[in-house]
Amino acid sequence: MSAPEFDVVVIGAGPGGYVAAIRAAQHGLKVACVEKRASLGGTCLNVGCIPSKALLHGSEFYEEAAGGHLAKFGVKLGKVELDLPALLAGKDKAVKELTDGIAFLFKKNKVTWLKGEASFIDAESISVDGKTITAKNFIIATGSEVALLPGMTPDGEVIVTSTEALSLEKVPGHLVVIGGGYIGLEMGSVWRRLGAKVTVVEYAERIVPAMDIEVANAFAKVLKKQGFDIRTSTKVTGVVRKGAGAVVSVEPAAGGASEEITADIVLLSIGRRPNTDGLNIEATGITLEKGRVPINHDFSSQVPGIWAIGDVVEGPMLAHKAEDEGLACADNIAGLTGYVNHDVIPAVVYTQPEVATVGKTEEELKKAGIEYKVGKFPFAANSRAKANHDTEGFVKVLADAKSDRVLGVHIIGSMAGTMIAEAAIAMEFGASSEDIAMTCHAHPTHPEALKEAAMAVTGKPIHM
Fold it and tell me: Which of 70, 106, 189, 456 would disulfide-bridge 375, Cβ 3.0–4.6 Å?
């Protein structure tokens, strides 16, 4: 038999896939990456993380200006108008610049982009739009796709997914979001700021169900204060088009009288599922588990030469988790030691205020029978937050009652997404709450609230 064409072929060019391809190439391996989209970057860069953050950022500016919030800083404006096409164009520009940047990095690192859709022939070869490609190693990095409720099919116009919600031609009068998770709340925030009435329907007892309960409850209060209509413990029984809009049928999750909610746009946002359809993975000898590829700690599968990372394997479906797994997987293929600490994977909801979390929640610690101490500090007592007239939220530190090792950090506040990085670094190094408390923080800054929360673990914060 002839030698394989490539040392590594990565299937999927999302955050995990393109990073894995570049790192493998940096190790001197001959690498190709298969991507069916017209541009690189996967869901995250094309229709996920990046465009949504561009809209969130722009909509924050609009609400600040239109809502008169700038007056507290001495900035007075006349009539403020929304130029939605310009906002959407700015989003598209950011996406293009970043996806083009990946194409440049592929050329720089000599990664071959195989344009098309991959399907396994066997464990040593794939078909890409009819052409056979062979490799010593394949990394499955095909990401995830929108999960849908039975009988609720998006039409792309009125009943939409997060993809279409990024490019609505006008601000809906009433947006109904089905699902109270990260994506639905972020997209709901965008269109609420721009003028839409937003109703969130969540089957669970609370929004963001996996989040620390105290933080989630505080988050819900803030969103309601902003104008969100949040209906938890509510089951959606049907979504149908009606004229130019749609009707959403709901009832209490525990059973009860049905109700109809009229909407201009319905956003289906109950979560995501591994994107493994069409890969013909069974041809390799791998058996999927709940749609996911079962892997070992080094990201290898049960079949030699087949590896998997990101949303198609166990764990949170987060771009940065996929990136780190891509790096580690490529290192392992190159004979090095790649490792990801899955106990320290931060997560952020990019609303305003932001909500960020890393490590264990109180509920998880209680369930595991782990004794812990809690330290909390409000941004209302933080000097920088006071100066910025932005004091919503708090920092919460959970530490082992005996060793004082930090087990979890949960933040709700305008800078939460940035602040959580310090907490993650501290936890990666096995820091105690005392370590954070004794580390000098610049003044006046928001991260001082993390220092004070760490001091509060022992009951000795200074400014509270």
Answer: 456
